[in-house]
Amino acid sequence: MMVTRVAVLGIIVENLDVTDQLNAILHRYSGYILGRMGIPYRDRDINIISIAVDAPQDVTNTMAGEIGSLPGVNVKTAYSHVISRS
Questions:
Q1: pLDDT per position in the chain (86 positions), as tens?
Q2: How far is residue 61's CA from residue 7's CA, in Å, rounded to a whole number?
Q3: For the domain that residue 33 is a member of, what is the CATH number?
């Protein structure tokens, strides 16, 4: 039985040179991603991204860890209380 939780990852990209690496990570986890919203904040030279996922908690944690390991990228995860078992 797989247990998944709905979560949101808030990502701030201050180093725009890593966007290809970030997109590669998100592509690897695309099966868990429900939706993605990106806001380029050109006045500050940053990107603000939110990712909604429904995944096992360890998968969400691993994805956030990979994203957060990129230089100039900050990520925070907020978990819902919505849990599903399949």
A1: 889 999 999 999 999 999 999 999 999 999 999 999 999 999 999 999 999 999 999 999 999 999 999 999 999 999 999 889 87
A2: 10
A3: 3.30.70.1150
Q: Please indicate, yes or no, if residue 23 is contained in any of the structural domains.
A: yes
Tokens representing residue 8 in the block: 């949101």
Residue 29: domain span: 3-81
CA quadruple 29, 19, 15, 48: dihedral positive or negative?
A: negative
Query: Does residue 86 belong to any structural domain of this protein?
Result: no
CA separation for the pair 14, 11 (Å, rounded): 10
List all residues 6 or more positions away from 37 whose beta carbon is below 8 Å from its beta carbon.
Answer: 49, 50
